[in-house]
């Protein structure tokens, strides 16, 4: 399947480059009038009327091949199922906080008391704590951080 997808992509790129080259070679509508009176026939590779038929037909064939390759690439990209579904934030690894230094007084370190993956701060035991001693806890997934209305 991967080889076929690569082959279709290469064919599409080659037809796109071929169409660009053929369109740049073709004369505009104003050049046909000069060629009808004989001034442009000597400078053309295919003669006065031969280039319009050959180049326009070749461009039309390359455009049809390009269109078919585009439809095939769209079909292949839609038929392939993604490896994972959901948000990128949900599949990201949780960010780890840097380790807090041990307290100098030898007491318990508050950063070590937070359970991993907790979404709420546990109720304090004993005397009431001041707001300066509480530690905020980040949500478990990134999707919970997106504000809702």
Automatic annotation (TrEMBL):
Output a single Gene Ontology CC term carried by this record: plasma membrane
Q: Name one GO molecular function term.
A: protein-transporting ATPase activity
Q: Which portions of the chain have biased composition (kind: Low complexity)? A: 92-104, 120-149
The transmembrane segments are 54-76
> Keywords in UniProt for this one?
Cell membrane, Membrane, Protein transport, Translocation, Transmembrane, Transmembrane helix, Transport
Asked if the record carries the keyword Cell membrane, the reply is yes
Q: Which Pfam families match?
A: SecG
Region (Disordered): which ranges? 84-149
InterPro entries xrefs: SecG (IPR004692)
Functional note: Involved in protein export. Participates in an early event of protein translocation.
Family indicated by similarity: Belongs to the SecG family.
The record's annotation in PANTHER family points to: PROTEIN-EXPORT MEMBRANE PROTEIN SECG
Q: What name goes with this protein?
A: Protein-export membrane protein SecG
Q: Look up and give the organism this protein is from.
A: Ramlibacter cellulosilyticus
| Species classification | Bacteria, Pseudomonadati, Pseudomonadota, Betaproteobacteria, Burkholderiales
Q: Which gene encodes it?
A: secG
């Amino acid at each position: 399947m991967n080889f076929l997808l690569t082959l279709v992509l290469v064919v599409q790129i080659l037809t796109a480059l071929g169409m660009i080259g053929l369109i740049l070679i073709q004369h505009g509508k104003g050049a046909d009038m000069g060629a009808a009176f004989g001034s442009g026939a000597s400078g053309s590779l295919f003669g006065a009327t031969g280039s319009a038929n050959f180049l326009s037909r070749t461009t039309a064939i390359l455009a049809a091949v390009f269109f078919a390759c585009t439809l095939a690439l769209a079909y292949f990209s839609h038929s392939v199922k993604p490896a994972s579904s959901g948000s990128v934030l949900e599949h990201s690894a949780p960010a780890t906080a840097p380790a807090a230094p041990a307290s100098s007084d030898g007491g318990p370190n508050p950063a070590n008391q937070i359970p991993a993956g907790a979404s709420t701060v546990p109720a304090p035991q004993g005397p009431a704590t001041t707001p300066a001693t509480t530690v905020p806890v980040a949500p478990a997934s990134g999707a919970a951080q997106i504000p809702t209305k």
